[in-house]
Amino acid sequence: MAVEPVTPLYLIDTIGPFFRGYQRRVINWSKIPWDHAGRQGAAWWEQVCRDLNVLARQASAWGFNAASIDDVAHLADHPGIEPEVRQRIERYRVEMRRCFTVLKQAGLAVHVTMDVFSATPWLEKSLRIKRQPVNRYLAELLDRFFTDFPEVAGIIVRIGESDGKDVRDDFHSRLVIQTPADARRFLQALLPVFEKHGRRMIFRTWTVGAYPIGDLMWHRDTFTQVFEGITSPALVVSMKYGESDFFRYLPLNRNFFRTALPKIVELQTRREYEGCGEYPSPVGWMYEQHARELRQAENVIGCMVWCQTGGWVPFRRIAFLDPEAVWTDLNTFVTLRVMRDGWLVEDAVRAFARERHLGDADALLELLRLADECVSELLYIEEYARQKLFFRRVRIPPVLQVYWGNVFISHSLRRLLRYFVRDADAALRSARRCLDNLDRMLLLAQRAGVPVEDIEYMRDTFRILALSREYYFAENAPDIEARILAAKTAYKAKYPKRGLRARYRIKTDFKPLLLNPRYLAWAVQFLLRRQRGYRVIDRIIILNGLSLIYRLVAARKPDLVPGFASQSAMGVDVVFK
What we know:
Blueprint: E1 9-13, E2 27-28, H1 34-37, H2 42-62, E3 66-69, H3 83-105, E4 109-115, E5 118-119, H4 121-130, H5 134-148, E6 152-160, E7 172-173, H6 180-197, E8 200-207, H7 220-227, E9 235-240, E10 263-268, H8 284-294, E11 300-306, E12 312-313, H9 326-341, H10 345-355, H11 361-379, H12 382-385, E13 390-391, E14 394-395, E15 402-403, E16 406-410, H13 411-420, H14 424-448, H15 452-473, H16 480-494, E17 505-509, H17 517-527, E18 528-529, H18 536-556, H19 563-567
Parallel strand pairs: 1-3, 1-11, 3-4, 4-6, 6-8, 8-9, 9-10, 10-11, 16-17
Antiparallel strand pairs: 2-12, 5-7, 13-14, 13-18, 15-16
Helix pairs in contact: 2-3, 5-6, 6-7, 8-9, 9-10, 10-11, 11-14, 14-15, 15-16
């Protein structure tokens, strides 16, 4: 059966309602918390359907025509799964059918996410005993899944990231596609199933750097090895806009120009590294530039907008549902107008202000321009952020001192940033200018009719970032450590640990790093490169020998790896696979 391509394809994620009542302080927003959803009764599911209806109808009214929702593993039955888990799956299937109906009735084509590969312990054992390859198992599973769920239009496949270490579930995913050849065999085995049922496979090139496939999202040779010669009408390739995660200062991913296959660009409007909608972090001007460039790429058929998914954070405003999520809603509206309709950001912002009955649209625009500058120059350090740095198969993030819901202020970061940032005066001046911006933004927020308390929260948070900037680069600030600790104490007293207004964690460590600057420079030059292509030393030592060295060191001295790096998401060790 031929697949009828949706052109254009504008996807939005819809997992927000499933986090209602979820009480963990730091939430893993990567997928629906099934351990939480599975304990809920009929009233909770009724609320989910009501929330989904609100979300879906607003998204459809704006112009989205498809939705993503989690996930195949918890919806596809199999005799190899533990009996009690199969009972829970049956309950999920009943409830999620209702959710699918809500999305479809609102005009959104349903696309279900799938990790390759996710299984229970019994299922893993069953496949080993039968010696059944994962690809054959998945082909049979999806053949039944498509028959059971005719309302599902497609599957969104993630092959380069698995569940985080905090996931406690009957199912757990792991990375089984490790090479370009593995990815190619997967596509060749699964695409016929999609073609048979007339469904769409949205194949994400996102990877976290693990194994030889780990550079798929940015390396032209790996990309070519996977996709060259594949012409299935069922396939859509999905790529994040940059060569890393959803950060600023990243050029448009050049792989958009290296294949004629249908492609969509992944964009994030609830910025997981920039406050998750707790304060304005405008993306319109950045995406407007990407949209102009993408007009030169062949067969770009739309975008996938992540307005709820992503990050391990305490922040919990839910787009489309919470009035406090105005900044995420604004980003989402502007992003779709820019990407779908080719609007200018200014026109989109004014249209949003009219729709939401806000105040002075010109004041809102000025506020957003100032907020854009504050995020770009104070949350990021521009001189460092503009540098192209790679370690193994990963492009190094353009921000080091802020990660998810954490602000890091440490002597080791001070030494590292002083190595990369040569114009310390410019970094200090931009911080002071941004603080002036924030004072002006408080007045503009009143005129614009947007929450003044969000700007106040942004100002309090960014004042700590400005103090950290002073700690990193000022030559004459003898009392800076005391001022940082005092500001940290005041910040903790003003903002609670949890709730709709959660705070960043300020992690300070002023203990001197006992490392000669010359040795630090040697280590950076040895481990990092400023080019996409691999050096000889990368191929001989960094990609192979360093993996063995890391495993030996981590096994003998696990305390050398900070808890945050080892326990968050998949853990830093995945980079060394």
